[in-house]
Protein 1
Amino acid sequence: MHAYLLRRLLLIIPTLLIITVIVFAGLRFVPGDAVDIMVTLTPYKSGDEDPRVVLRRELGLDLPIHVQYGRWMSGVVRGDLGTSFWSKLPVTQQIVIGLPVSLEVGSLALVFSLLIALPVAIYSGIRPDSVTDHVLRAVAIAFICVPSFWIGTMVLIYPPIWWGWAPRLSWIPFAANPVAHTIMVVIPAFILGMWLSGITMRLTRNMMLEVLRQDYIRTAWAKGLRERLVIVRHALKNALIPVLTMVGLQLPVLVGGAVVVESIFNLPGVGGIMVQAMEKRDYAIVSGLNLIAATFILFVNLVIDISYAWLDPRIRYR
């Protein structure tokens, strides 16, 4: 286990390097940059040096791309993700402000998806091809097909028309009003969780059907064990291995969905920061946020891989 864990941790380093290179270079290939936007706000006088040249020099964009990457990466090693082109504030400071909001929304979305998917999938797995099973499978497909940004938009449009109520779009800290804060966060988290639950629901149901046909499950039934014990202790535990894998694969999608949902509901999370940074071509913020997101996803997937050995005693890491 220790050797496997060490190899995986060492593998994270080159993986992050490749991701940062792709993101760092890809941003430079996007048409337009921060200078093109800033120059419209910079007064230009005849005879003065071209403001584009001045701005590129001040921002360090006149240097070759490999030199820019080297400077940025040397700062990352020291814990400095750079400085915003526009606000002149450290990127780390802005991420620290928005990260708790995104973690709160993302964690609640994952919890909602599991609370919805697992009980429904277990019931469909032990009662296959029943009327309820067909209805629940149709609901799962609907959750997958309907995009979260469309549901979020509908939530903002129709409740004010039908019931005279609309979600608040101005941020309320938890300390100021716990109830209002909870409502403001739960709605977008539930919308994100709906989409995630559809995929998890279908996968868990299929795995339950496969596991329930195994010989050791028939043996458990033959021993006269109670249905709840057979399903929870013997069947569900082994059926969750592919489900955990799917949860790890859903994390990048969850991050991307959070960007859209946070923008719709005006939440001050890293999603809103990312959208604004992309619009203004604020390379330091975009690169820093991608590095944080990639690191988080890699470590969570490592934890998921290690948990396989707990779910299935036959799995051994060397």
Note: The mean pLDDT is 81.
Protein 2
Amino acid sequence: MARKNTYHTPGGEKPCGTLAHMLGRACLFFVVGGAMVACTGLHSGNYVADDGSLHGRVSLSGAFALYPLAVRWAEAFKSENPGVRIEIEAGGAGKGITDVLTGQVDFGMLSRDLNEAELEKGAVPFVVAKDAVVPTVSEKNPHIEQLLRHGISRETARKIFVTSEVTSWGQVLGHEGGDRIHVFTRSDACGAAETWAAWFEVGQDELKGDALNGDPSIASAVASDHLAIGYNNMGYVYDSKTGKPAAGIKVLSIDVNGDGQIDPAEDFYASVSDLSSAISQGKYPTPPARNLYLVSRGEPSDPVVSAFLSYVLTRGQALNHEAGYVAVTPDSASRH
């Protein structure tokens, strides 16, 4: 089910100036009755008042992966700009790209790279954060201690999620027999599934398992099934307040070098901060590490929309780390 929050937030940023300066964008306005108004954009009523305050609305939809961070950006922007309402809806990356290209929202939240067809339709991506998709198991798995020491290699994960050659937890640990693995995957068009599949060099439709809609559904299913394995955006694996693994679920460490054990250099899952540092240092494989994007249809020109994007790409990056994401630099935030 889609998750939706509405924030009444203002636009304290100056109209488009920072974004235009940093990314070389052009902002187009006209003046009506003393107020500066965007001449293009989804919300014709958005404007900048004489005192520089922003008024209007910004809307986002899409990837579950980016939803928690987008909420934090909106809350912070709100504290500075009470005249702007920000609407955020999670429903998967597929929904995000559809909504933005059909003009339903200002920004699609994407947890995957854009394809050529989307770029040809006018999609303009901005890298706003980095995170990762991680393999998840129940903390009540009867083999949990062995699994955390042994980890899972890319090849074994592929044999679970793609070829179905590995069907028991005994096989994961290097011997025959054992409890049968219950595999969960995503049913919706989403960046998490595409990124997970890309790790195996296949498409989302080639992933095996019981298909569920949305990140929360897989996290809940894995937590409640002691023989389950799934994959989740890291934001749904760690508690947002403590930064520690969420109750009921564990990250199954990736055995990057394939030696059958988790070496100290591969052991960085104790907290979201540890995993974020590993991603930024390139210790966690890419994929399933990936860029996260805000995507607009064409160059943003509305002053309120541009101010929000400017905030996200600059001062808003300070919120990334505390929310469990990797911040991006102005260079990497440029359009790809």
Note: The CA atoms of residues 137 and 229 lie 5 Å apart.
Protein 3
Amino acid sequence: MSNSNSNKIMVPNAREAMNKFKMEAANEVGVNLKQGYNGDLTSKQAGSVGGQMVKKMIPIRSMIFERADRTAVGHQVTVTYRAGLYL
């Protein structure tokens, strides 16, 4: 069985940018990351950093419009559709 890691950074110069992005995400959710090893983080803290990164990378698209109310003649209803990429 081969050991394939899909988390490899394909562009060597991108490693620094990803580390900066991770530090910014950690700062936004109040997690204190250190340079290097962060094995002392709880699963909740690590998950909140990863979640914040995904939230920034995959935005949710929204569309808001008004249409005629189907239950009351002459009334308008505001409808909001939200779509995002869920992995």
Note: Helices lie at 14-28, 43-57.
